[in-house]
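Bug report (template v2)

What were you trying to do?
Predict the complex of my protein with phenylalanine.

What happened?
Run completed; filing so the output is reviewed.

Input:
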Amino acid sequence: MSQDRGSFGRLGFVLAAAGSAIGLGNIWKFPYMTYDNQGGSFVLVYLLAVIIVGLPIMMAEIVIGRSTNKSPVSAFLQLHHPAFSIIGWLGVVTGFVILSYYSVVAGWTVHYFIKGVYWSVQGFTSAEAATLGDQFGAFISNPSAQIGYHALFMGFSVMVVIFGVKGGIERLTKILMPVLLLILLSLVIVSMWSEGFTEAMGFLFRPSKISPDSLLEAVGHAFFTLSLGMGAIITYGSYMTKKESIPRSAAMVCLMDTLIALMACVVMFSLIYSVPAVEREQFSSSIGVMFTTLPKLFYGLPGGIFLAPLFYILVAFAALTSTISLLEVVVAFFIDQLNWHRVYATLVMGLTIFAFGILSALSLGALTGLSAWQPLGDKSKGVFDTLDYLASNWFLPVGGILIAIFVGWVLPKVFSRKEVEKGHGSFHLHGLWIFLLRFVAPAAIGWIVYSVIFLGKSYN
Ligand code: PHE
């Protein structure tokens, strides 16, 4: 007897998938990518990438999951294409790998939330402001702090996933997503009064210089931020009921993810442009910027004592709804494929991923051997960076291209049409969708993979 897999209620899929999509990628990665790529045109290209590559692949993933009600490996077996179950295997490995380092950064947001509360109560002194960089450096190279917060965040994720699809994932995302939107909205409103707001809007939406590399970066990031290419959306799709519309749900998730990323940019850039140009230098693509620069800017604003802790709890929430989706991909595999009990699968895999993540946690300065490890030459430095490089440049694009090829070329068109039309009615854009999957998405992703292999580029 196999156990009941569970399924989402109304809006459950959209909120859970949006929760998965919205995460550190939106609030932490996207703003500094936009900054590095000079704003305006990059944002435009990114929007295009979401619409012509991200959205079609998201629909493809949902079709695979919902038509089979299975997690990725089992799904391709059930569709009688065992060779493609490699997508599922790759996805489980990718979920495992991403979660192991993602949870480390997610842990930082909890630490900074606590710090924010402390600053707000005790006062944010100029001595604190002057040492933010050093404090951050000391924190990420402190082994017990890194392992401790990583453990805490894995613990939170395990606690949610253990309660299953409806009682855990859906229940949490239904609470956290509206809260997250509310916090971000209030931050946007506050930032409208800051001096830098107008300049920030100009930077974000006025056309700017753009290089071919930025184009690739935009496509690569679309994958990461929409949780595509590793079966997270296949897995969530497998819990979606036939009453829901696939095109509308996918469009909603893409729209919400994009809006949140843009709102995060508005907040950050309004802050950044409120300081004199010389001090802006610090805002570059360093992993610490959210922790070393932002507090100073927040506490400079009226109401700053509320803003800093609010901001970090927002990022922590966003990260949590993403880590649970990563863990769910791994756990669902053991449930569907090996018939493990959910509680057992979650505990065992949570613990294993935690243990593996210790390598990343200690590779940001705590242990020299791990921090200086460079198996790929100068492409990455240390375990954390190497895993992120592999996942963002290899695993996700390769998974994505295979999914596009599968639904575009292998799965019969009548099959995909029938599935999409359940809960939607006749789908007039089916031809366009298949065209994007057949030609546009593989070309765009193939170009990334080509430039990673032959031109030595990296996009994380
Ligand atoms: N989409 C998440 C983010 O933007 C990260 C993620 C990637 C989650 C892949 C699940 C799967 O932070």
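What did the reviewer find?
The chain has one domain: 2-361+382-445. The chain is about 75% helix and 0% strand.
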